[in-house]
Amino acid sequence: MSVRKILKIGDPLLRKTSELVNPDELGTKEFKKLIRDMFDTMRHADGVGLAAPQIGILKKIVVVGSEPDDEAPASSKVPERILLNPEITPITESVDGNWEGCLSVPGMRGYVERPNKIRMKWMDEKGDAHDEVIEGYQAVVYQHECDHLNGVLYVDRLKSTKMFGFNDSMEFSGPILD
Questions:
Q1: Cα separation values, 39 from 71, 123, 144, 177, Å
Q2: What is the pTM of this model?
Q3: Which residues form a coiled coil (predicted)?
């Protein structure tokens, strides 16, 4: 298990745009190790997703995956996936509001509204192309993680700064995204 340091808000790398993953990189020892390390780091931090910039790698790589806890609905499960060079297009004007948290903004949450139905195109670790319509909680998770690839954090998308604060100081109502 190789857990990497997660960069925190204020680190300038989190505000940079990531580079595309070249298909020639797939299958290399370095790439495979990076993917393993990203999953190890995400799980160690109890996250639902992790983008490569969060560990200082400016590449368009996202890993996601979670199992709902006993009190959470099955709809909060996010299948384990590796997303390379993802492109997101909202396909509805309807939004879902969630109390989002982030491994790079530890101990805090903010209320963010995002489209609840998106079309996402990406490449997997084998180089296979995917094109899928994604809805609900998964759509929110993917948008949150893919924002990192463009130097955007959820705090940039807050509905109101009055709906942002430390976890232990706030009362939450509605869905919570980790």
A1: 24, 17, 17, 18
A2: 0.92
A3: none
